[in-house]
Design brief:
The structure holds 2 protein chains of 2 kinds.
Chain A: H1 3-12, E1 18-24, E2 27-30, E3 43-48, H2 63-75, E4 84-86, H3 96-107, E5 113-115, H4 128-134, E6 144-148, E7 151-155, H5 172-183, E8 191-194, H6 213-218, E9 226-230, E10 237-241, E11 244-248, H7 275-278, E12 281-287
Parallel strand pairs in A: 1-12, 3-4, 4-5, 7-8, 8-9, 9-11
Antiparallel strand pairs in A: 1-2, 1-3, 2-12, 3-12, 6-7, 10-11
Helix pairs in contact in A: 2-3, 3-4
Chain B: H1 2-22, E1 27-31, E2 34-36, E3 40-43, E4 47-52, E5 61-62, E6 67-68, E7 77-81, E8 86-91, E9 99-105
Parallel strand pairs in B: 1-4, 3-9
Antiparallel strand pairs in B: 1-2, 4-7, 5-6, 8-9
The chains are: A alpha/beta, B alpha/beta.
Chain lengths: ~300, ~110
């Protein structure tokens, strides 16, 4: 094992939870923050997910504390990320106090925060508790797009009107909006899509996928670089298909079982001392490189 | 006094046992993303109680009756009384792959 890799793994053992992407030459790359070589000259942003504020038992009695730790790591990054994306399940039960805590804590980073709701954020009032706080300027159930550093960002909502197949769903109205939203963009525009439930079918038996996700990706076919960021499954899962890189981030609250190993998708008990090796943040960077898209799979612990 | 109390407790126990013979409480447990028993058989007019034993919230959606429960936190319950005979399918609103059924007889 080389030194760099060992450094990454050492950082993993205390990391709260985040991944950062940098993008350069239109190619987003994921890497773990805390790595000695994480400093980049390019544009980057941070992703966190699944904070489940209000969950206070079993594997993690203090989800507020672990979110604070994760945000502290984001704020301490030497190359300040341009903004923060939260890919849903900010709260556990959509309670006003849980939403307020989330907004207050995320504000402490000094970064603009972009969010999409998870299914835990729309349990009450048809999602109004979420939309009133986080949905300003969004469309429908909270979807929207924006441009930053030449990249087109699209936040999608796939947790409303779930069907009997148990998978996430975008719905016709949102799909039509997406088709219109990207129509005028040149094929060389890097695209970053973020949504709560994985847009691809990560594990059908547990509903870890989006029923009409393929249709959404169909509208993005012409683009040379598409990065899809999700949460929901509380563990890193990555794959690359053509020009599309899929990435699911860790939770800041608790790990969930591994498909095919755990008996169900609920919170996974781990020894208290190991909890933080399962939580994380992500940093997404635009990397100056002509190398093919490289998303690195990293073990959770040595 | 002690004897009187123990008599009372004994009497209550007998009463309670008698009750449980007459009608076992109609209860659906939610554990590891599964409803059980499913199907559950009850008589018309009987109430069914769902109890969430998971660390993740669940809800009960009886589509045919347009009934949506609130999200049940751990140990949270939802009660619904079935006034008409029939077969009622339901799902969890958060995890629609979770399916259950209540069969209500006359």
């Amino acid at each position: 094992m080389n030194t760099e890799r060992r450094d990454v793994m050492r950082c993993m053992t205390w990391a709260g939870a985040a991944m950062v992407w940098t993008v350069a030459g239109g190619i987003p790359r994921s890497r773990l923050i805390g790595a000695a070589e994480a400093a980049t000259s390019g544009f980057s942003f941070a992703q966190i997910s699944d904070s489940h504020l209000g969950f206070d038992r079993g594997v993690n009695p203090n989800t507020t504390g672990t979110l604070q730790e994760a945000l502290g790591m984001v704020a301490a990054m030497p190359d300040k990320p341009a903004f923060l994306i939260h890919t849903g399940d900010i709260t556990h039960l959509s309670k006003p106090a849980q939403f307020d805590t989330g907004a207050e804590l995320m504000k402490t980073t000094g970064l603009t925060t972009y969010t999409v709701p998870g299914e835990h954020d729309i349990l009450e009032d048809d999602g109004k508790s979420y939309l009133n706080r986080y949905g300003k300027g969004t469309k429908g159930d909270g979807w929207y797009s924006f441009n930053a550093h030449g990249i087109h960002f699209i936040g999608l909502v796939n947790v409303v009107n779930l069907q009997g197949n148990g998978l996430g769903a975008l719905g016709r109205e949102q799909l039509e909006w997406l088709e219109r939203d990207v129509k005028g963009l040149s094929a060389s525009t890097p695209i970053v899509v973020f949504a709560h439930v994985p847009l691809w079918i990560a594990y059908r038996d547990w509903g870890w996928g989006t029923a009409d996700g393929a249709q959404a990706l169909g509208y993005l076919k012409k683009f040379g670089s598409v990065t899809v960021l999700n949460g929901h499954i509380h563990q890193v899962m990555q794959k690359v298909e053509g020009h599309v890189a899929f990435h699911a981030a860790r939770s800041t609250a608790f790990p969930q079982g591994v498909p095919g190993q755990a008996k169900g998708p609920g919170p996974m008990m781990v020894p208290p001392g190991d909890l933080r090796t399962y939580l994380g943040i992500a940093r997404v960077s635009l990397v100056s490189s002509s190398a093919p898209l490289a998303i690195v799979d990293t073990p959770l612990a040595g | 006094m002690t004897r009187w109390l123990s008599c009372l407790v004994g009497g209550l126990l007998i009463a309670a046992t008698g009750l449980s013979w007459a009608a076992a409480p109609a209860e659906v447990k939610i554990d590891n993303f599964t409803f059980s028993p499913a199907p559950l058989r009850v008589k018309r007019g009987e109430a069914v109680t769902w109890v969430n034993q998971d660390d993740i919230p669940h809800s009960i959606v009886l589509a045919a009756l347009q009934v949506h429960s609130h999200a049940l936190d751990t140990n949270g319950t939802f009660v619904y009384r079935f006034d008409k005979a029939g077969v009622y399918n339901y799902i969890c609103g958060l995890h629609p792959a979770m399916k259950g059924q209540v069969v209500v007889t006359q």
